[in-house]
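Supplementary Text 2. Reproducibility record for the structural model of the 308-residue chain.

All settings were left at their defaults, and a single model was retained for analysis rather than an ensemble. We include the record here because the model underlies the residue-level annotations in Supplementary Table 4.
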Amino acid sequence: MLIREILFPTDFSEAAQYAGRYATLLGRKLGAALHVIHVPFVPLPAMPSDLTGLAEAYAAGRRRTEAQLKGLIQAEDWRGLRVRTTVTMGLIEDEILKAAQGADLCVMGTHGRTGIARVMLGSVTEKVVRTAPCPVLTVRHPEVRVELPWGGVLVGRRKLAETPRVQRILIPLDGSALAESVLPAVRELARPLGATLTLLRVIPPYVSPRVSPEEKVSAKDRAEVEAYLRTTQEALQEAGMSVETVVRVGDPAQEILDYAEAGEIDVIALATHGRSGLARWLLGSVAEKVLRASALPVLLYRAWCQLK
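Retained model, structure tokens:
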């Protein structure tokens, strides 16, 4: 797949501005056009008698937004890029998903919060990720606000890089075609950026009847995993990619997060099933845990499939 257009939804918040740095970087490196969309939030009146002022409120909101978008794309980071802007009214996630129909990649900011704040501020991004027809790069804001289980709140800020980096991309695989469905999108990102791909396979401990309680995994299981990674690595190298492989043993989500933090990774890329209800928890739990817990940008690709 070719990335010709990047959708960048913004609410003009600090989190969105931070994600915009990745949108402009990728637009410039990939030669892609940028579609910037904003959906103004206009609260409904408390009383039906107040509906007469709703049209004026919409019009005022549109004018403010158009002025903000004009100021945004005149900033230095946006100069020289092909950009179009859209202001539309409606449910925020629905309007973003409509715009995503014509995009090859969506870049969205998310707030690094937990608890009630995460539900309120991260819900739009999570809904888009679950149903978007294109890969979604979620960029977590460097703000840190963690509600501790025993009470109290930790508030801080991660150190910001001077410029966004997409030089090392981590791709967790589990041996399935679904997990590999993210690879075409990653190749399109990595090739013009000159990025190195790291293929990570996490083996859950004690998954084989051949393993004794004293062992974590059998030598045969590890050999099979390493052979699979070599085959995938060779195919990507034949396409001109720089590729490394890593095998870890443990909880998949935790090992992905730990390696990404320790391995100087810039982006984590993985497929998600994009389902709701029980199927989402059973089949998309690793991707969801990584999305919620990673401080790094996460590229999520919804694997379109039917539940058998």
